[in-house]
Amino acid sequence: MNTELIQPRRRDLFAGFFSVGVTGFGGVLPQAHSMLVQRRRWLSESDFAEQLGLCQVLPGPNIVNMAVSVGARFHGAMGAMAAVSGLLLAPLVIVLLLASLYGHYRQLPLVEQVMHGLASAAAGLLLAMALRLLPRLERRGWCALVVIVTFAAIALFRLPLLWVLLATIPLALGLAWLSKGGRGE
């Protein structure tokens, strides 16, 4: 097996990360690994692990950081721009097309029903996540109080999320501090 690494051109960076952007949905690091290490052989396994470690400590999505890092490694700022542009082009076009279609057809009953269904699915996913996290919640009355107040403010009173968080986060922190006897342990 030939293990010699290949030096990509800028257009190769664009095309390689474009393929990741087109085929990836959600966690795309496995596709990026396959493209970078196995198919295109731009990085070795250890190079990929090193790049990924760097990308994980930087702010932002790991895959975007990976595109910047790999692109810059081979062609500086222009390589980083080529890789990120390739990665983001297809999702950007898809989102713009969907937004345009939605803007044009949003009044149709079928589109309204689909959007209600998607909203219900999203709410169900959030509820499932909350139920999964519930057993890890400390068994203290004040924890339940914060959950109930937050839920009521958003779901029942329809208060803006930002304002609710700005109020409940300090409340939760203060109650946690007081529950520790004000010692900050």
From TrEMBL:
Major subcellular location class: membrane
Listed transmembrane segments: 13-32, 80-102, 114-134, 141-157
Protein keywords: Cell membrane, Membrane, Transmembrane, Transmembrane helix
Protein name: Chromate transporter
Membrane topology according to the record: Multi-pass membrane protein
UniProt source species: Chromobacterium amazonense
GO MF assignments: chromate transmembrane transporter activity
InterPro entries (UniProt xref): CHR_Transporter, Chromate_transpt
Subcellular location: Cell membrane
Entry keyword Transmembrane helix: yes
Family in the record: Belongs to the chromate ion transporter (CHR) (TC 2.A.51) family.
Coiled coil: none
Pfam families the record matches: Chromate_transp
GO cellular component, one term: plasma membrane
